[in-house]
């Protein structure tokens, strides 16, 4: 079968499609025929050698596909079930997953849209819930044009936000963000981000977190950090703003608040079926994984970057 791997560290150019043996599910695993896999910033970190991943390497992340075989002890799913979730190596025609990290996917959902719900949508709506969002509040989203951010913009408006501000790296993304519901678009270097907001959903990290995101809050506002891209907050600045800072981990939610995950997932599928949630994606075939990664490197992606497996 075909599988995207890298045999050395570097940039998007080191990705290649190899022919490898088909995997076999072990106890507690399922074998999935891949339909779509998500390309994320974690891929770029792996390619750069962060954490020194073993070579040859193959990226993990979100996927959608159909179960073709079950390992011993798997009773939650059957062969033929359509599922989505997270797995260790997803850029391949077939992949191995564990039942705890997958969930059913409706048959009628297009693969790229389903991937948007399974991964980015789950994070987006969970972040709004963790942040205590209520209708009538104002929201600011950083990394707003990304796979998670553009869905937060849509969901905040759908759930009754009076004002949604999208913060991004380039003004070239403004039209896209307004098309998905943003009331205002600002760029990270802009001197003025407009009136303070009730809730900031922070997905950019780095200097954006302490220098801009916290300052965008009104007194007693809330800031949810939802991406592990670094950045340090000063305790005195948090105190002075009377702000609440909340870290969101999907792993912790899944382990300790599974009912929240189940409720969020059900609501997302309802919104998608009703046409009230519209995941945006740039879709590439598996053999063009390098181009997909290069788009992410250039920070030019609008929505989710997706590899489609045919």
Strand content bin = 25-35%
Content-based structural category: alpha/beta
Number of domains: 2
Overall body shape = globular
Number of strands: 15
Give the CATH class of the largest domain. Alpha Beta
Helix content: 25-40%
Q: So, CATH architecture of the largest domain? A: Alpha-Beta Complex
Query: Separation of termini?
Result: 12 Å
Succession of helices and strands: EEEHEEEEHEHEHEEHEHEHHEHE
Summary keywords:
7-stranded mixed sheet; 28% helix; globular; Rossmann fold; 6-stranded parallel sheet; 310 residues; 9 helices; alpha/beta; Quinone Oxidoreductase, Chain A, domain 1
How would you describe the overall organization of this protein?
The chain has 310 residues and is of the alpha/beta class. The chain has two domains: 2-118 and 279-308, Medium-chain alcohol dehydrogenases, catalytic domain (Quinone Oxidoreductase, Chain A, domain 1, Alpha-Beta Complex), CATH 3.90.180; 132-247, NAD(P)-binding Rossmann-like Domain (Rossmann fold, 3-Layer(aba) Sandwich). It is 28% helix and 28% strand. The strands form three sheets. Strands 3, 4, 5, 6, 7, 14 and 15 form a seven-stranded mixed beta sheet that branches. Helix 2 crosses helix 8 (258-273). It is globular, with a radius of gyration of 19 Å.
